[in-house]
Design goal:
It is built from eight helices and eleven strands. It is an alpha/beta fold. The chain has a single domain, classed as 3-Layer(aba) Sandwich (Rossmann fold). Strands 1-9-8-7-6-4-5-3-2 form a nine-stranded mixed sheet, sandwiched between helices. Strands 10-11 form a two-stranded antiparallel sheet. Helix 1 packs across helix 8. About 5% of the residues have low confidence.
């Protein structure tokens, strides 16, 4: 299979950034808060054996109830959809209070995609997971897929996942090739494509669907070198993976609020307009290719 790896030259970025603003947009509705169940882990073989030996029913853990924020274009659809996964700091208060949908949900809905922003922390009482600990985020993403697939305005065959930092790690884990299922009904909940912004590239890079990775060259939290090494190691195996490395860009380069940049948990984070504009266009093009918009 074909793999792509590009380091962009600064002179290219501003021009393509202007192109990202030239496409016809749909009007997006305000986000609605919804709730759905996170997917549960499979019952393990040891639990199954012990239950059979004791003649007891299989004990299934209760599913976590997760908040989500749904943004959709005007119209009846069915539209392609995106599951949006936040980073380790969680969702901004402005999104949870309805003051804003957030940049990416607005942009994606303007292109004609339904967007479900998953809040993995609030209902679990987690303030942040940057200093250790996390939630079962793969299960949350599968739960979001199930919720979207049940909506009449969503085309269940065209659902992608898009994650940022820790959420980007989850996006890659969701589509990484493996020979076992961790969660119930996992085989029925298949994403069409994956996008990961500045993730940790710690796997062998063999993905089951087309994948786009976008990262800053100067990122010291999730170093771009690991993603470059992954691309070399995968040797074109699996579905196509495209890696975009943006020169002069740090972690969270697409977050406009990071002007000026600042240190966060010992790492430098900073908005980079040329890189952000190029990433917008790259995401638009990738989704159009993979989801048919």
């Amino acid at each position: 299979m074909i793999q792509n790896f590009a380091v962009l030259k600064p002179a290219m970025l501003t021009l393509i950034g202007f192109l990202a603003l030239s496409h016809t947009n749909h009007r997006a509705n305000a986000a609605d808060r919804v709730q759905f169940e996170s997917a549960r882990y499979q019952v393990g073989p040891l639990q199954l054996r012990l239950a059979r030996e004791r003649g007891e029913p299989i004990a299934r853990a209760p599913a976590d109830l997760i908040n989500g924020y749904l943004t959709k274009p005007e119209g009846n659809g069915p539209f392609p959809a995106i599951v949006h996964l936040h980073g380790c700091s969680g969702l901004p208060k402005s999104v949870k209070t309805g003051a804003t949908n957030g940049f990416w949900p607005e942009q994606l809905a303007a292109w004609g995609y339904v967007v479900l922003v998953v809040d993995s922390f609030t209902t679990r009482g987690i303030s942040q997971a940057c200093s250790g600990g996390t939630a079962p985020r793969i299960g949350d993403a599968y739960g979001a897929w199930a919720y979207l697939s049940g909506q009449s305005f969503v085309d269940s065959k065209r659902i992608a996942v898009m994650g940022f930092s820790q959420g980007g790690n989850t996006a890659l884990s969701l589509v990484q090739q493996r020979d076992f299922e961790l969660f119930e009904y996992e085989g029925d909940r298949q994403f069409k494509a994956a996008i990961a912004f500045y993730p940790n590239c710690g796997s062998d890079g063999i993905m089951t669907v087309a994948t786009l990775i976008l990262i800053g060259e100067l990122d010291d939290w999730t170093p771009s070198l690991a993603c470059k090494s992954m691309m070399v190691a995968r040797s074109g195996a699996g579905s196509p993976v495209k890696l975009m490395v943006y020169p002069g860009a740090y972690h969270a380069f697409d977050i406009a609020a990071l002007q000026p940049g600042r240190e966060y948990f010992g790492h430098w984070t900073e908005y980079n307009r040329p890189a952000a504009e190029q990433a917008i266009e790259e995401v638009r093009r990738f989704l159009a290719q993979q989801l048919g918009r």
